[in-house]
Amino acid sequence: MTNPQSAPVLKVVDLSLRYLTRGGAVKAVQDVSFELAEGQALGLVGESGCGKTSVANCLMRLLPDNAQLVAGQVLIDGQDILSLTEDKIREYRWQQIAMVFQAAMNALDPVYKVGQQVVEAIEAHGVEATVSLARERVARLFRMVGLDPALMDRYPHEFSGGMRQRAVIAMALACDPRVIIADEPTTALDVIVQDRILRELKGIQQQLHMAVIYISHDIAVIAEVTDRIGVMYAGRLVEYGATEDVFRAPLHPYTAALMGSFPSIAGEKRVLANLSGEPPNLIDPPPGCPFHPRCIHATEVCRQEIPPRVQRGSQWADCWHPLEESAVPESVEAGEV
Amino acid sequence: MEASLAHTPSAETERLVSVSGLTRQFPVGRSLFRRATSFIHAVDDVSFQLSRGDSLGLVGESGCGKTTVGKLLVKLIEPTSGHITYRLPGLDVGEGTENVPVESADISGGQLRAFRRQVQMIFQDPYESMNPRRTIYDTIAEPLAVQGMGTVLDRVDMVSEILMLVGLTPPATFLFRHPHELSGGQRQRVAIARALVVEPSFVVADEPTSMLDVSSRTGIMNLMQQLAHGLGIAYLYVTHDLAVARYMCHRIAVMYLGKIVELGETEELLRNPLHPYTRALLSAVPVPDPGHRREPPNIVGDLTAPIDPPARCRFYDRCPLATHHCRDNPHPAFEEKAPDHWVACYEV
Hints:
The complex is a heterodimer.
Chain A: E1 10-21, E2 24-36, E3 41-45, H1 52-60, E4 67-76, E5 79-80, H2 86-92, E6 97-100, H3 114-124, H4 131-144, H5 161-173, E7 179-183, H6 191-208, E8 211-216, H7 219-225, E9 228-233, E10 236-242, H8 243-248, H9 253-260, H10 300-304, E11 309-312, E12 315-318
Parallel strand pairs in A: 3-8, 3-9, 6-7, 7-8
Antiparallel strand pairs in A: 1-2, 1-4, 4-5, 9-10, 10-12, 11-12
Helix pairs in contact in A: 3-4, 4-5, 5-6
Chain B: H1 2-5, E1 15-28, E2 38-51, E3 55-59, H2 66-73, E4 81-86, E5 102-103, H3 110-118, E6 119-122, H4 136-147, H5 152-165, H6 172-175, H7 184-196, E7 202-206, H8 214-231, E8 234-239, H9 242-248, E9 251-256, E10 259-265, H10 266-271, H11 276-284, H12 324-328, E11 335-338, E12 341-343
């Protein structure tokens, strides 16, 4: 906190979250910790249900009624937002931390003009004193995300998918947040539009020196736009490090398997490794390493005890049998399909 | 498009499906008292061939008409004009005419049942494509009953066998489950089993992995390849994902607003894309390698809908190479610019 240059803007410490369901408590997030500095982009990747969106919802404090925060802190500039009251959190949300929702998920209200929806967000947070100032601000934001300000008075249905996604980005930027979470920001879009939007987001991030968390199942997108990557499995962060290092030489067999199962249009065509089996049930997760039922390196100790943290340079992973630096991504074919 | 008919990847008799000048338009703004005045040219003068065991990837952005081509090929919809010719076992127009080419338009009545056995489709969404009230056995055995294949007792064995083939083992634990008890990947395996249980020669797969998670996606892609290879099935693989098409298909056809703009052998097309749209599309695909640098795609403007498009090249408005010649002439012919590499562009 003393030196804002080096202090992380966002610090997540030992975050654990459960959802209480009739079948039992789903341990959606367990002991997740990471830090993010200004201007940094972090990518959270993993299969569906690995807890990446739950982490985002914790950071935004947008949790359903059955969610229960078990432990942990989410510090933005040293302030724990998990301990804030509901009134206080409203000020925090959007001004300190904002979210770019998937436009496909109806993030825009169909009966209000798009510009009006952004103006409302600005007014609600008192960022601008008058409506006309707020409108000017929205026009600036629209230009920043590559939308014609004249489109402010149009309705969402008049926007294409890419335009809607841009409007949602403009909305997230409305109150100058320090941290932006982009949850699958381009999943529903075609590649050419996706490319444009990712380039714009990256430009804005560098221009405004924001911290951004990208959440995606698409590791190709994550490889291109982030400088840190966190791999989640069964509610845990199992590997974390500089994106280049993790891609070059993953430590965790799960990371290697995830990368080995992803097709690419560049480089030699190679056989994709089957990452067989399914992620575990989080009501009753397996003892020891959560990945052991699917891991080809699993031994007795993996089945019994929580793996230790292994560090290599910028990178760490929780694994009993971390991969050697030279190891090429290999197949994981232990579990039954 | 006469030229493309000359394209012969293998012997004439091995050809399973020939498509020529295939066109399908959908009316826009039609109502009870008003005739449609505009048409979406969803598929416009498309030609290609598929041989036994061949695999063709049809790629393009949303709305380019790739799914419509798939539906036309399985006769879920009928073309506005153009021809689809099948050469399928069991499909004949009279006695002693086994394995002669049959026009799609001539297939009706009893022929249609034989056709449905030979040509199957796998849909995108394994959550929507199955009846939630029916067991896995019912779902897979239904096409067998329709086709009159096997006795009721045989069918349990046939279904078990195909479940093993698609990796749902042991079959007994799956037979009497319902779709909601299965994961997305397992459901898509059931959908594949249902398509393959009648031993088709040709399968249209419409984005079969796009709803699936990374891990199950690879499993399904590998499975489809093994099965197609092992059973000699030809498939048309409709996808928006070029990396998936590269992995799955011998050849790739790129569609833009109802037209195939480029068609070639997969690695050749990726190494040496000729059409400006293919180039833009390829350079927009993210690569899972942080060290890889891409140039921004060289394309202007946004995707539009092909509603009553002008006669000129469909890509004219967005093309970085467009000239007066492109503006004043009809859509360019599909020509073989390199061996087995077809392109529709004046500037290549």
